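Contributing new records

If you add data, match the layout below exactly. Sequence lines come first and carry their own label; structure lines follow with theirs. Keep one chain per record. Anything else will be rejected by the validation script.
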Amino acid sequence: MIKHLKTLLRGEVDARCLEKPNLRWFIGYCIAIVLGSSVYGATIGLWRAPLQSVFTAIKFPLLIFLTCIGNGAVNGMLAQVLGSGLSFRQTAFAILMSFAVASLILGGFSPITLFILYNAPPLASEHAIIGHSVMLLAHVCVIAFAGVMANRRLFGLLRKMNGRDATALSVLFSWLAGNLFLGAQLAWNLRPFIGSPQLAVQFLRDDPLRGNFYEAVWRAFRHVFL
């Protein structure tokens, strides 16, 4: 298991995780997701309050696992329909591997997001709304970058398993679209992550189905740039 974790920390993937998926691979990926995403999640909520930082450190790995579980059957069917030749089990391991790589990248970004946090307008200032918007946009960009890098590694693995670039690309983009859509909406339903300056620190909001993620990002963009 330690060897698998070292492979992930180097940003590498091993085709054996799909050829012979086993419990050791599964546990290694889960450990990588929990460690990397928890550390990064703590930096997300710290702008609002230390307690929010603890809540977000717990919820961020939960968000990743719920996304994997929620899209597991759909991604498996897409892999079959698009001719990848991957079984449902192999599909689950491939996606879990990509999330593990993304989580480790996010963990590595934690010092940078802390730097942004300590240079953003603080909660107690009159520009707290701008500070919240800056933090939201910064984290969206960092998470998007980590996802792109992780899926770049996943593409190489799919191409090696299938042997056809077109099939690997179609499978990758179908998985990416589904995970992005579900992950973004789950993140909204599990809010707060950063924590709004006008609202109390909570583990979950009382109205989790009100609004959506894309509206929040657009509002943050307007606050900062318009």
